[in-house]
Amino acid sequence: MKSKGLTSELIGEVFGTFILILLGDGVVANVGLAPRLAAPAYNWNTITIGWAFAVVVAVYVSAGVSGAHLNPAVTIALAAKRGFPWAKVLPYSIAQIVGAFLGALGVYLVYREGLVAAGTPNVWCTGPGSVFGNAFWGGAGGTAAGAYSLTNAVIAEIFGTAVLLWGVLASGDSRNTGLMHNTGPLLVGFTVLAVGLSLGGPSGYAINPARDFGPRLLGLLVGTQGLFDGLYWLIAPIIAPIIGGLLGIFTYDWFVSAQIADK
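Now predict its structure.
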């Protein structure tokens, strides 16, 4: 298939990330607002499964157009170790943020009445102020059992994004047991599910700067409070995933690619 150039690739990244956030933040809004169920119906498993399928659908839709990075941490990692052109990193990242913003706008339109009635809570992004604040950050004063510091959230984001990259790289690694084009997106989705279930507690597993920042901007515009208080928004969901993505791709090559090549 002949490539149509950077413009088409950017359209693919916008559309793919739009789908990712429409379905991912959509499940957060659905469960958090519980329009059909009582509030105790909240279930972390529902959130993680919803996000996993959001990834699967988004990757299947956009992979043939842009490669379905949908995540600046993935784009930067691929530029660092897989020959992805550095000149495309910034355009891809901007396209991903735009797509994430539009996906959050879609969620707002779908759930507008429920969001307004609830005071426009943070269903958009991770960290303090999210609808899961009590689960992740403890009660008043942050002293309850299970409260996590910014440092702990950063560590969780680094590990979670590294695992994400392991799944992404393995899914297309023909020298490993790579699933390649037809079923590769399923492994990526299952990887996101595993990260959410196993490593998502301290930070809410952004593992994607665009996934967090684009919806955070939308939330600010529609009146959600506290989204940019302090430096959490920059450190945990933006800087830490980039570090984790680089860690993930380098460790995959050290511990997997190099060992396969030596056989």
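The chain has one domain: 6-261.
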